[in-house]
Amino acid sequence: DAGITQSPRYKITETGRQVTLMCHQTWSHSYMFWYRQDLGHGLRLIYYSAAADITDKGEVPDGYVVSRSKTENFPLTLESATRSQTSVYFCASKVAGRDTGELFFGEGSRLTVL
Amino acid sequence: GQNIDQPTEMTATEGAIVQINCTYQTSGFNGLFWYQQHAGEAPTFLSYNVLDGLEEKGRFSSFLSRSKGYSYLLLKELQMKDSASYLCAVVDSNYQLIWGAGTKLIIKP
Lengths: 114, 109
Fold this sequence. Notes:
The structure holds 2 protein chains of 2 kinds.
Chain A: E1 4-7, E2 10-13, E3 19-25, E4 31-37, E5 44-51, E6 54-57, E7 64-66, E8 76-78, E9 87-94, E10 104-105, E11 109-113
Parallel strand pairs in A: 2-11
Antiparallel strand pairs in A: 1-3, 3-8, 4-5, 4-9, 5-6, 7-8, 9-10, 9-11
Chain B: E1 3-5, E2 9-13, E3 18-25, E4 32-37, E5 44-49, E6 53-57, E7 60-65, E8 70-75, E9 84-91, E10 97-99, E11 103-108
Parallel strand pairs in B: 2-11
Antiparallel strand pairs in B: 1-3, 3-8, 4-5, 4-9, 6-7, 7-8, 9-10, 9-11
């Protein structure tokens, strides 16, 4: 099916472990984003990508790594997970350009770090 | 700093009308979005305003006043399925989205 999908949907890990959240979209959208959502906060941008091999930091990039070797995939890696990274992570995409097109979100990945 | 303010929670009755306000202070303005997010689900697009005035889309309308740094989302003929969080987001001068914390809307029968 076309769309944007995330995996895993739920993940429990321990402090210090590496975790990778996957994001895949079938629309060939140029822009992709990773957000985290925590109670009492708006969505906070972690990293974004304007195209394959182009990534840039968002508001809260520390402790995260991204890559984008193919347009359709944008994995997010927590190199050494901490409890403060317990959150819901949303991947999103949108059509190219500096315009203000709407974002299309994946279903979210709920990560718990013990 | 940049700031988006929305009420944390609102309650309304099925069949009624509710207005959810959003005020913003951002470095520049290139539009304002409203998204709906049901519990445990992803946000979905509702509306986009870049010019002053009211945009109507079925039971939902969104209003913008750039001079006042103010927007509202108006929901008419409320249905139980409208129970959700409503997120306001502003596009700043760098074309970055700044998100409010969201307003949780509870609909009572």
